[in-house]
Amino acid sequence: MKPLLISDCDEVLLHMVRHFGVWLGETHDIDFTPDGADFVNSMRRRDTGAAPTREEMWAMLGGFFPAEMHRQTLVPHAAEALARLAERADIVILTNITDACRSARIDQLAAFGIAHRVECNQGGKGDPVARLVAEHGDPVTVFVDDLAVHHESVARHAPGVHRLHMVSEPTLAPSVVPAEHAHARIDDWREAADWIAARFDAGVPAG
Q1: Which of 4, 63, 97, 118 has the fewest Cβ atoms surrounding its Cβ within 10 A?
Q2: Phi-psi group of 138: left, alpha or beta (phi > 0 → left; psi -120 to 50 → alpha; rest → beta)
Q3: Is the pLDDT reported for residue 36 higher than 80?
Q4: Mean pLDDT (whole number) for 158-177
């Protein structure tokens, strides 16, 4: 049985916030200063200094995905790391975007040489991770994500999964504290690939 890698996409495989911020300025006259927390609190209208409402924020994200996804760029060393790990493991990209964006995400990743199964999700990732692990026969599994809330969710629903916290946006990473429920925090794919391979080599679930 092959081990399983379940990876997030935005701020793990592809840069998103830097390009979303540029687009917000160009299209909505909004300054965007992400700090790893709530997007709403990171947005300020240039004319009033006010933050948009949560509904407006979600509408703006809906304007970025999928129409502006072409702006996104590949995280350094991500494609090479996945290619190395794919020689021994099954890989699933678990991304929190709507199902309507799934084909665009598949095409986007394939253009960067990343051609693996893509699953879309909304909300916590613990349940879908648990389902994927069961579907693959309960192999040794590593989960990679930039958001602490998802590590907490996976710890609750799939505690045997090894959890790696990664924030691959260098302007954001210093302000994001390591996720409490992750087993490690690594922001560079070269080191991360070694850590993941070591979990596969050990062949045991997370304790």
Answers
A1: 63
A2: left
A3: no
A4: 95
The DSSP secondary structure of 62-131, one letter per residue, reads HHHTTTTGGG-EEPTTHHHHHHHHHTTSEEEEEE-S-GGGHHHHHHHHHHTT---EEEE--S-SHHHHHH
**Pick from 138, 188, 146: which is nearest to 163 by CA?**
146
For 143, the enclosing helix (H) or strand (E) is strand 141-145
- Dig out the tokens for 1 from the structure: 């049985």
Instruction: Find tokens 């990664």 and name the residue.
Output: 166
8: buried, middle or exposed (CB in 10 Å: 19+, 13-18, 0-12)?
buried
Looking at the chain, how many residues does it have? 207
C-alpha span between 141 and 64 (Å, rounded): 31
- CB-CB contact of 183 with 162 (8 Å): yes
| The pLDDT of residue 200 is above 90 | yes
